[in-house]
Amino acid sequence: MRIGAHVDPGDPLAEAAARKAEVVQFFLADPKGWKAPEARADADALRTAQVELYVHAPYVVNVATTNNRIRIPSRKLLLSHATAAATVGAKGLIVHGGHVGKGDDVAVGFDNWRKTFAFAAESGGFATPILIENTAGGDNACARRFDALARLWDVIGSYDVGFCLDTCHAHAGGEALLDVVDRVKAITGRIDLVHANNSRDAFDSGADRHDNLAQGMIDPELLVAVVRAAGAPVVVETPGGVDGQGKDIAFLRDRVTA
Ligand SMILES: [Zn+2]
User: Which burial class, exposed, middle or buried, applies to 3 when counting CB atoms under 10 A from its CB (0-12, 13-18, 19+)?
Assistant: First the structure.
């Protein structure tokens, strides 16, 4: 099982080495901006590296929204990120499930997801597999609660779409971690990547504040059990840079392989 971290995009392979990470995730553009990714000078080195790579789409992307001025650019940005992620050999492009606004019908959000895949199909499909990630907050989210996730998968499951399980988001989003892998797989049939994070906040708080694995509100052994059950590559998105994430990686490696 490959274990690694979300790292600064400057030199992802050096960041991986510093943490003894076998997998890294990074952004290809400003996560809070709408700029398309620029070509990377180190694309060849990244593509041929032993380290497995994942790209996280910008946080501004919300393909589910009923707001045209966010939904349409979100579709395009997601497509351009999938193309750019392929040039560095990324195994997946992680994107949050998104949400509709207050008073909107979340069913419209699910259909907007379907249109996103249909839009991509018109230009040959996404160049990198899309992994939809569960989110922590919001009342009208497409992938916070698993009843919504099941409805989303009813609409888009026929496309080859993957899933990224974030443990902090599940806990803070109000989904118990005890049997979470089985419940997700009953819906999606797969877990492609785990974001292993502890949470600074209480169960079902709706807050999205990650913590290091051995601290926070989730029993660390429960995180280990989820990682082991998922059997997928693992990325920690925890604080503390090389030191904090390096310890989290070592913590998982010790226990998951024990
Ligand atoms: Zn995450």
Answer: buried
